[in-house]
Amino acid sequence: MSDEKNTAAKLEKIKAEILAKYPTKVARKRAKQILVNRKDSTGKVPEVGANMRTVPGIITQRGCSYAGCKGVVLGPTRDIVNITHGPVGCAYYSWLTRRNQTRPESETDENFMTYCFTTDMQEEHIVFGGEKKLKQAIQEAYDLFHPKAISVFATCPVGLIGDDIHAVTREMKEKLGINVFAFSCEGYKGVSQSAGHHIANNGIFTHVVGLDDTIGKGKFRINLLGEYNIGGDSFEIERILDACGITLVSTYSGNSSIDHFANSHTADLNAIMCHRSINYMAEMMETKFGIPWIKVNFIGAESTAKSLRKIAQYFEDEELKARVEEVIAAEMPAVKVSLEKVKPRCEGKRAMLFVGGSRAHHYQDLFAELGMETLAAGYEFGHRDDYEGRKVLPSIKVDADSRNIEELHITPDAKRYVPRKDEESLKKLENEGLAFREYEGLMPDMKENTLVIDDISHFETEKLIEMFKPDIFCAGIKEKYAIQKSGIPMKQLHSYDSGGPYAGFKGAINFYEEIERMVNAKVWSYITPPWAAEPELSANYAWVA
Ligand code: CFM
User: Fold this and answer.
1) Residue 62: beta bridge partners?
2) How many CB atoms lie within 10 A of CB 340?
3) What percent of the chain has pLDDT over 90?
């Protein structure tokens, strides 16, 4: 048996061991979501079970639809008053503090991100309805802040009692004369926060995009989609784009303003970072306004350089291409100096990454730059196209849960649909290697005989750690302390702990140096977790479903 096969067989055995702990029906379901990565002669990867309901009782990493809509997509926009219609807990836990940063253009520009707005529903409103309370909340927010826009987010009870939040926001929009709109993003809609992304995309597209037709300055005007300015990532990307002479019309939605969204349909290219959360917006903008989209990634120095080159290639401008090369040449020496220092101390170390929908893919580039290997990775809520690539889109089965989320039917705008490039130049660019509307996914990019696990459970996380003893594990706050107690350094990739930025060139250096410190810190090996010191009661399922 070759070494390769040996590893594959070993991984299959590990998978079987993990599944053995589950009841038969659960094991059958999880078997589709835990895969040993392999590629056939055409590069095709196996089909993964994704975007499926989590089995009740399993401790998942996932969040809810409201989290994806309010917390992720709309949250980082500084000048919309975002009101959570629901219990105070939902609002409190989606209160963005340091995670998403923002920088108002002047001291007098608003920033509501430091506030937490909620209707604070009580039992009384659940019984008698919460619409009156919502109207009052909108009025109060208006009287206090006079914002440009107010948006309302539904939590679970709102859907259950049937408050018509859209009727309320329509009425208040008329009354106040500002943009007021709502999102039916009840937590239970869909199977994860992914549904909330889609709802957010639909809402912004319907209520905001296209409201301002002013064509701003700049020769090379793009939107950056799916970048949320965690730990200041957007600031670093903005610095780089600026140095290249590329104008950022809007980001969705790191360091953004509602005015940027309103004007974003005037850009000439959409560049997507996080495919999962925002591809709907790019698709709708292309259909309605004629803006093509490409996939980029600013996580990793090499990936940043590659993404800049792609943007320059799209504009087919020699001066821009030269400027991009100059910027890359000016930034890379510092990256190299840092790598020379840290790479020898990181090379060969092994990482595992389990994050929402795109970071588990993007961050593999940074680890690869450090000479580190990714043993296992997966998304909390990615879809099959995020794993296997968009070519599988036509074969994805629509189930009852995904049918629940509205698909807007978009048609070209009668006046404002302007194809940015004709078919011929798109074809030409494609022949030169620039892929439009394409994302190849995580699995084709990962080595064979690595583990790909969708919606990993807490139990599986513990098992992986026990079996592989990786040198670093990346996930979120819910996993952090159990992992550290197991003696493994843990890096949060949702909030970056206290670090960041990690995007772009300077961000890459930050990441290298931080990871080098983490994987070489001896402190973790001195830990004896409570469960190793005291015996634990455990059991197996003795019945067959
Ligand atoms: Fe996209 Fe995100 Fe992510 Fe995501 Fe998220 Fe996030 Fe994430 Mo946490 S939009 S899918 S819903 S890159 S909040 S900024 S870090 S799980 S990997």
Assistant:
1) none
2) 9
3) 92
SS (H, E, C) 142-169: HHHHCCCEEEEEECHHHHHHCCCHHHHH
Q: Determine the distance separating the centroid of ligand 1 and the alpha carbon of 356, expressed in angstroms.
A: 5
| Burial 50-70, CB ≥16 within 10 A → b, else e | bbbebeeebebbbbbbbbbbb
pLDDT tens digits, one per residue of 503-544: 999 999 999 999 999 999 999 889 888 888 887 787 777 665
Best of 494, 495, 497, 502 for a ligand 1 pocket test (most atoms within 8 Å of beta carbon): 494
Q: Which residues contact 517 (CB under 8 A, 6 or more apart)?
A: none
Scan for tokens 């790909």, then name that residue. 452
Q: Is the CB of 277 under 6 A from ligand 1?
A: yes
DSSP state of 379: E
Q: Give CA separation, 28 vs 20, 22, 32, in Å.
A: 10, 9, 7
DSSP H helices, 214-274, are: 233-244, 258-263
Cα(300)–Cα(320) distance, integer angstroms: 22
Choice among 67, 141, 154, 377 that is catalytic: 67
d(C-alpha 518, C-alpha 512), whole Å: 10
Q: Which of 301, 75, 85 is nearest to 204 (CA)?
A: 75
Which residues, 6 or more positions from 198, have their beta carbon under 8 angstroms from its beta carbon? 190, 280, 405, 406
Residue with CA nearest ligand 1 atom 1: 274
Q: What is the pLDDT of residues 438-490, one digit of tens each?
A: 999 999 999 999 999 999 999 999 999 999 999 999 999 999 999 999 999 99
3 state SS of 179: strand
Provide the whole-model pTM.
Answer: 0.96
DSSP 460-514: HHHHHHHHH--SEEEE-HHHHHHHHHTT--EEESSS-TT----BHHHHHHHHHHH
Among left, alpha and beta (phi > 0; psi -120 to 50; other), residue 18 is: alpha
CA angle 179, 181, 187 (to 5 degrees): 155
Asked if 67 is an active-site residue, the reply is yes
* C-beta neighbour count of 427 within 10 angstroms: 12
